[in-house]
Design brief:
alpha+beta, single chain, three-stranded antiparallel β-sheet, six-stranded antiparallel β-sheet, 19 helices
């Protein structure tokens, strides 16, 4: 251990401390802590009465007395100081992607030092517990190091390089807001079938409703199988032709896609018929206004990606987040590994939800998450069931180019996928807790997030854009009429305005911006009302 102790001692800074009650030595390295927990501080050859509070008061020679057998654990921590004053916490909110950095460092360390990290997590930890002063807490990465690597000096040097690099990773300016995140603590999950793999078929369903505005519930599956047949050659030209819709006697080939489209709000069931749903109407109108005439519906354009990933994150956040973050953490992950570990990863995520929520969420919210845990624990034939969960979602992410899916069913995040993972992970850090429902973040930042992912360099809207915004709002009153006169559903109007302004004018506006803009004098003729029972609102002209 001598070389390691020497490296740590001379690499540590002022502020390294001794926690005698835990037999711990906390070495304050540049950007991180190395914590050695000893079986006893007596191995330092000092008396109990002479135990100092700081490592600077120890001699280098006394530290060299530490042998490998004297060590109980080695932990590496790196985080951000959390002010104990609430106002100060708002003012100096860290807004750093700690969760993303934790996974990135775990992955990089495991490439060069396999199994060196026994566990990694992002959590709170107490740095200083002086009885006469306020406790000092940090929020950050926590790595437990395997015993075989305790005396490997190269491992510590590699951590130093990685933390130095990570210190330069910040967060986009748009996340710096005084508003605190809100979380409904409601988990939504899509029912899925292994056959529903191609998002392009959702586009074809919406095309079908242009030709047939009302389709009988009893005939829709057969109708879609017939309609989809015209696009078979396009599927065969696509990078992956799994999930094909073919003609059947029962309509079973179409059924998974029809059910998915209904769950996403693209189509709607009413009095024996299917018609376009709220989001389906918006998609078709935007597509027509943008003059998008892509020949191959299976090749998604930027608008398709923006539209579908927003729907999927709202309706399936837990499963998609777990897949994306696991894929980030494991280099070139295999399908078999994901299949074997996905259930455990979901349970771990849900247990964290409960642990973090029990101090401030009502009983019914916590019980709902416990019910979800119970259902996951009781999956019958998990390996078979897993195919229906994983294969559709992996292929959706593949269609949107967030992952690259190899022929051997191994996969990895693309650059777009890493950006998406970065943002989803950062939400946890802004919130200081794991996100259960992403709605607040989607309402406040979604278009700006997608702009960073797509690299289209959109600009945030200003007052100069008010006339254009009003034009799109007024258009939505004509395109998405409701039974009530001069009224439009907010979610439809918001999607239309946001996407039109972005793809037509290269300007960024969020749902929350649109709500706030109705308080401006320039928009005095509109009234916005939220209806909790519908989880939506409406906009009305005075």
């Amino acid at each position: 251990m001598k070389e390691v102790i020497k490296y740590i001692y001379y690499g540590s800074e002022f502020g390294s401390i001794v926690k005698s009650w835990n037999n711990e030595l906390w070495f304050n390295m540049d950007h991180y802590w190395i914590v050695l927990r000893l079986s006893s501080l007596l191995c330092l050859n000092i008396n109990n009465d002479d135990i100092p509070r700081t490592i600077g008061e120890l001699t280098f020679e006394s530290l060299l007395n530490i042998k490998r057998d004297d060590i109980e654990s080695v932990t590496i921590l790196s985080g951000e100081y959390i002010p104990d004053d609430e106002e100060e916490a708002d003012m100096y909110k860290h807004c750093r992607p700690i969760t993303y950095i934790t996974a990135e460092i775990f992955k990089q360390i495991n490439i060069d030092f396999p199994c060196a990290i026994l566990s990694s997590k992002t959590e709170y930890y107490c740095v200083d517990e002086c009885t006469m002063c306020p406790e000092v807490w940090e929020y950050g990465s926590v790595f437990t190091i395997g015993k075989d690597y305790w005396d490997n000096i190269e491992l510590y040097k590699h951590f130093t390089k990685l933390f130095e690099k990570a210190s330069k990773i910040g967060a986009p300016q748009f996340y710096h807001t005084p508003n605190r995140p809100k979380d409904s603590y409601e988990i939504k999950v899509l029912s899925s079938n292994t056959k529903a793999r191609r998002l392009g078929y959702l586009k074809i369903i919406l095309d079908m409703f242009k030709a047939y505005p009302k389709i009988s519930i009893t005939h829709i599956n057969a109708k879609f199988e017939e309609f989809a047949g015209k696009y078979r050659d396009f599927l065969l030209c696509y990078k992956n032709n799994k999930g094909e819709v073919v003609r059947t006697k029962t309509g079973n080939s179409a059924k998974p896609y029809i059910e998915l489209a209904e769950q996403l709000g693209l189509i709607h069931k009413i009095v024996g018929y299917y018609t376009l749903g709220k989001d389906g109407k918006v998609y078709n109108e935007i597509r027509q206004h943008l003059s998008l005439n892509d020949q191959n519906p299976f090749m998604l354009n930027d608008f398709d990606v923006v539209f579908f990933i927003e729907l999927l994150l709202k309706e399936d956040y837990l499963y998609l987040y777990t897949i994306i973050t696991l894929t980030h953490k494991i280099n070139n992950i295999s399908y078999k590994f994901m299949q074997s570990n996905f259930q455990a990863a979901l349970l771990e995520q849900c247990e964290l939800y409960i642990e973090e929520a029990k101090s401030h969420q009502p009983f019914d919210k916590i019980q709902s998450i416990k019910n979800r845990i119970h259902r996951i624990q009781n999956w019958k034939k998990p390996d078979v069931y897993m195919e229906h969960l994983l294969m559709p979602r992996l292929n959706w992410l593949y269609d949107m180019e967030f992952i690259c899916l190899n022929e051997d069913l191994s996969f990895y995040l693309t650059q777009k996928g890493r950006y998406l993972c970065y943002h989803l992970s950062l939400w946890n850090d802004i919130n200081f807790e794991k996100i259960v429902s992403p709605i607040w973040f989607l309402d406040n930042f979604f278009m700006q997030i997608m702009d960073t992912i797509l690299g289209l360099r959109g600009n945030k809207f200003t007052v100069v854009d008010y006339p254009t915004i009003k034009k799109y709002i007024d258009n939505s009153f004509l395109l998405f009429k409701t039974l009530a006169p001069n009224r439009v559903t907010f979610s439809q109007m918001s999607k239309f305005v946001r996407n039109m302004l972005y793809f037509k004018d290269n300007k960024l506006i969020e749902s929350e911006d649109i709500k706030n803009i109705f308080g401006e004098l320039d928009f005095f003729e509109y009234i916005y009302k939220y209806q909790k029972q519908y989880e939506d609102g409406y906009v009305q002209k005075k």
